[in-house]
Amino acid sequence: MSTTNSLAPQRAEPSFAEFFTPKLITVLREGYTLGNLRADAIAGLTVAIVALPLSMAIAIASGAPPAAGLYTAIIGGFLVSALGGSRFQIGGPAGAFIVLVATTVQLHGLDGLILATILSGLILIAVGFLRLGTYIKFIPYPVTVGFTAGIAVIIAASQIKEFFGLTLAGPEPGPFLEKLPVLWQALPSLDPASLGLALATMAVILGLKRLSPNAPGMLVAVVGAGAAVALFDLPVATIGSRFGGIPDSLPLPSLPAPDLAKVMAVLPSAVAFALLGSIESLLSAVVADGMTGRRHRSNCELVGQGVANIASGLFGGFCVTGTIARTATNVRAGAHGPVAGMLHSLFLLLFVLVAAPLARFIPLACLAGVLLVVAWNMFERQAFATLLRVSRGDAAVLLATFLLTVFRDLTEAIIVGFALGSVLFIHRMSKTTAIDTHTPFVAEDRADDANGERQPYDEADAADPNVVVYRISGVFFFGAAASIGAVLDRISDTHRALVIDFAAVPFVDSTAAHTIEGLVRKATRRGVRVFLTGTSHDLRKDLFAHGIKPPLVRYEETIARALAMVNQPA
């Protein structure tokens, strides 16, 4: 029996440079023209107009000063574009982080938030260099829809106080179920001016989106509300009255005081920032790929995000990630490459340097209206309804993730949702793996002559009651190993040979290989010869690694060949 070695050329493993070269370098190597710069400048300005009110609103909702949101978008956003693995990614503070950031501020203060942000950057760099970015994208779709919808509900609930201008007797509780009764009790303190500004903000944003989709609705609404406060001296809470305005320059970088106890205390928050940041940024990169036909480098993207988070923390910002809405805006605005994202950060810096004093007039009720529109857009209503309708399993994963996000904890929701989704997938996959007593034909993808047709064995071979032939089809993995092992284990001492056909098995894992090994050793003790047929080179390599090799078993190319060898001496 001869063997043939394949001499077909194989593509070499991508080099380190191929994995981790930022897309900015790739774009510049292609040739960067004045026309490209013009396109990137227009796109960068467009995104900056969107990012300006959002960055401050997200920071305030997170329990941080509005300037921290701007620093995050300026420093972190610049580095995400300069060092990341996506041509069009726009980095900055994201609504998805509001819950985590607010919890971290409540537990550890602003210095703890900065420390957690820097640690999350180190974690992201490690995850990227370990090339784990590919696996992060395997988060099930019902999980992403569920936690995004849950975050949207929490964001909306967090803005009720400012939206209605309520006055609370004490601090606002963080947990959802504790927050609602406190807000309800404070309802008599409703401020009509705050409510009017919030409603007007939402009306302007939604109205301009319908009438002129390309108009910067959020910026128009915020500028209009700020002008109304300044002109009519409305008695509402503003950035100036609550925070004293925003600085007109960037702070000097500073490193939090080294404190091992503090590091250990904020480490869970840092891990949560890294997990959510990697999911959010890679989803954003995938969206950009779908809109442009390009392909991002996921591990390079995570390394860039890590560096951006470290720098953001050093400059007084907090966790930065790729933002889906702003990235999509960047693509629609005609961006050519990462320079657009870098310019978006420079435009925001220009605002801080020139127009910072005007920010003190922006009413918090207006920013609450902005975030309620963001929350409404985050809640993927059609996807949520579809997942509830099409599958009970997906509905269970979706609802578990959604409810745990709202009532418990975001990290816990993602872990539980991922675990449920994985169990559901394993259950479905196990049903696709089957074993049957093989009708005596040549394996479907192997002809026993040159005409490519299946040929029946001789009836004498087919009628041998002392030879058992089983065929396994599908992926042979731990989810199916127990049931298939139980079938294979039914061979009796009276059988002379067992033939197991792997022609329809693309892959075996260690659990399946261990099952086969136990079966083979048991059969050998009973004097039953075992033949394995139809195994590919990779499959044979895995089985050999688990000790399933001659003389314990005999490998043959086809079932026909194995049956012909049964009567020959071992």
Automatic annotation (TrEMBL):
Family matches, as InterPro entries: SLC26A/SulP_dom, SLC26A/SulP_fam, STAS_dom, STAS_dom_sf
Query: What topology does it adopt in the membrane?
Result: Multi-pass membrane protein
| Signal peptide coordinates | none
Q: Which UniProt keywords apply?
A: Membrane, Transmembrane, Transmembrane helix
Q: Which residues cross the membrane?
A: 41-61, 67-83, 90-107, 113-132, 139-160, 182-206, 218-243, 263-287, 307-325, 345-376, 397-426, 468-488
Q: Name one GO biological process term.
A: transmembrane transport
Per UniProt, subcellular location reads as: Membrane
What positions does the domain STAS occupy?
465-566
Q: Name one Pfam family in it.
A: STAS
Q: Does the keyword Membrane apply?
A: yes
What are the record's GO terms for cellular component?
membrane
Q: What is its main location?
A: membrane
**PANTHER family xref list:** SULFATE TRANSPORTER
Q: Supply the name of the protein.
A: STAS domain-containing protein
| Species in which this protein is naturally found | Stappia taiwanensis
